[in-house]
Write a structure and sequence with these properties.
By secondary structure, the protein is of the alpha/beta class. It is built from 9 helices and 11 strands. Helix 3 runs parallel beside helix 7 and helix 5 crosses helix 9.
Length: about 250
């Protein structure tokens, strides 16, 4: 069973050194970006330098460095889903030395009243995915460790937010009415696809994750509303909140 996958008694057979050589130390802070439009905006607006690549048989993904208000920041366009986003986060640490990651994406709201007009800072995430079980002891939820630090930063910047539990799923097309009801009963206010896995990898390798979300679609017993998803995915305002956050972590 997947709950048997947390093995810290024996050594891993595969190491990133086998693919990338020795670990590099270029920049300490990194943005994890999900939106192609936001990624393109950075490349077109700032002077960016490619400093590394994630390599794979289906294509390479570049990691760039930019300077924002005097601070060097790495960024890359991540893959969607817990396993891939988690792997790329640790690979970024290996390739460029980043130890502090600000991740910002969209999510589905499970509680319109609490999330409307606010960003969501996850405090815990239900582990409805697979990756986290390789990096953390089995449990229903994983703590998002820097949630209250991020909330303090948002307070300082005057950014509206709500703290709350979220649900990380591997399959949005299996977000059934029954599962949505269970997660809502447990206090989850949103559903997304990465944070539990990325947090588990950051905990395992002693990295810092600062994650916030913007609700786009809404999942309710009466049906599914998708109208706000494009805006939540590609909101440039969210990018500049993330950039300001990077300066403060």
């Amino acid at each position: 069973m997947i709950t048997d996958c947390y093995d810290i008694e024996t050594e891993p057979i595969i190491h990133l050194k086998d693919f990338y050589g020795e670990q590099k130390h270029i920049v300490d802070k990194c943005l994890i970006i999900f939106s192609k439009e936001i990624h393109t905006h950075l490349l077109e607006t700032y002077e960016c330098e490619e400093i590394a690549q994630f390599t794979a048989c289906n294509g390479n993904i570049p990691i760039y460095k930019m300077n924002y208000k005097g601070s060097d920041i790495a960024f890359y366009l991540t893959a969607i889903g817990s396993a891939l986003a988690s792997c790329l986060c640790y690979e970024a640490n290996w390739l460029v030395g980043a130890t502090k990651f600000v991740m910002f994406g969209s999510c589905g709201s499970l509680n319109r009243e609490k999330t409307e007009g606010k960003f969501i800072i996850p405090t815990e995430s239900y582990r409805g995915e697979g990756c986290s079980y390789y990096f953390a002891e089995p449990a229903d939820y994983i703590e998002i460790r820097n949630s209250h630090k991020l909330a303090a930063i948002f307070d300082k910047m005057g950014v509206p937010y709500v703290l709350g539990k979220v649900w990380t799923t591997d399959s949005m097309i299996r977000e059934t009415a029954g599962l949505v009801a269970k997660r809502k009963e447990e206090g989850c206010i949103a559903v997304e696809m990465e944070v539990a896995g990325v947090q588990s990898v950051c905990d395992f390798f002693h990295l810092e994750l600062y994650d916030f979300l913007e609700a786009g679609d809404v999942l309710e017993s009466s049906g599914y509303e998708v109208e706000g998803l494009h805006g939540a995915n590609h909101n440039l305002g969210k990018l500049y909140i993330a950039l300001e956050t990077v300066l403060l972590v």
